[in-house]
Amino acid sequence: MRILSVVSTRPELIKMAPVLRELQRRRIDGVFVTTGQHYDAGLFGDFISELGLPEPDENLTVGSGSQAYQTGESLKRLEAAFLKYEPDAVLAQGDTNSVLAAALASQKLLVPFGHVEAGLRSFDRTMPEEINRIMADHCSEILFAPTETSALNLLLENVPKRKVHVTGNTVVDACMQYVKVARKKSRITAGLRDFVVFTCHRKENTTPEKLAAMVRVLAAIRRNVAFTMHPRTAELLKKTGLYGKIERMGHVKLLPPLGYLDFLALMDASRAVVTDSGGLQEEAAVLGKKCVVLRENTERPEAGNVVLAGMDAGRVSRALEDVRVKKAACPFGDGRASERIVSILKKGGFGVESSSFIGSDYPEYALVKADGKRSVAEFEKRGGEVRLLFENGKPRYPNSKCVPRRGDELLIERR
Predict the structure, then answer these.
(1) What domain range is 163 assigned to?
(2) Helix, strand, coil in percent for the chain, rounding step 5
(3) Considering the entire predicted model, what is its pTM?
(4) pLDDT value at position 40?
(5) Burial class of residue 204 in the structure, from the number of CB atoms within 10 Å of its CB (0-12 exposed, 13-18 middle, 19+ buried)
(6) Any idea what DSSP says for residue 43?
(7) How far apart are CA 390 and CA 369, in angstroms?
């Protein structure tokens, strides 16, 4: 079996590192391809060596550009790479232009595509990432959902349950594997006291208006701030003449993009995290930190440590007055997601599905009342696939081991 993994940005590298290592550990033939969407050494190159990964087998050097350019060029070059390596399946994580291109190229070549972190939804169609993740999911034959909430999103979009696997999020694996090393090796927190980590990079948050609002947010924070600045954010702040205002804030320490161990150590030592990142919401949950999100929505509603504040100075300031969070199990998994993903891949049996209605009926659906005795798996043994479970009229993910209560309803697909 040959698995080709497309990993092209810093967040993807962090989240796919445990999967790449697990493929190596199980001696599965793996190919590592990057489109070069992140090409800065601080954003990608340095992470490869720091995470103990081999250099990519192919760097397609797509680089930066418009959404259309990145997606189109990645699609063309990935198609050539897939034809060259002839993988049994292609794997990618997340919602970037590179992931969308990988999903489309796989589908066109009828190579099964596996989407790690499938089913996340912000329900905000103005976000490029939302469109990317929806399209990638619907090109996928194997969908690795991090939580039952994300799995339910997929079922509500009519993705067959047999394709969906709840595995946990690989970011939990990465955090657990590296946080102790980060605490020992990193010196990034020297001189920092009572501080919050601040990041901001999304396109919708880097317009001139939002950058001005960001300056007001930083000025309103009544704690020390460690601002790890994305190169594009720094460039835009300088163009708009706002960079100097932040430099002159005595409580703000500007930092370049950090390696993973340094950044993990920084978050671990902080009082809270202020960000527009999706992945940092998960890492903050793993580390037990409050996370104030500079957005009006999130595709990670499971996290009890998250406060949505938008780019609003007052809301951010109030959210940071009390940074305590209730102790609770991490909603994103137990640190074994990569093991589950590779086990599912190793079983095989997946392919690009087709259909034939010759000699059989078009699929029919039936609502069946639960008796309070049989599990979802037992209902499926009688024929058909349980697509959804309704508890008091509310849709739920039908975990195979779940025994629905008497009177609950199951939507069953029968052919």
Answers:
(1) 2-169+335-347
(2) 40, 20, 40
(3) 0.91
(4) 66
(5) middle
(6) I
(7) 10
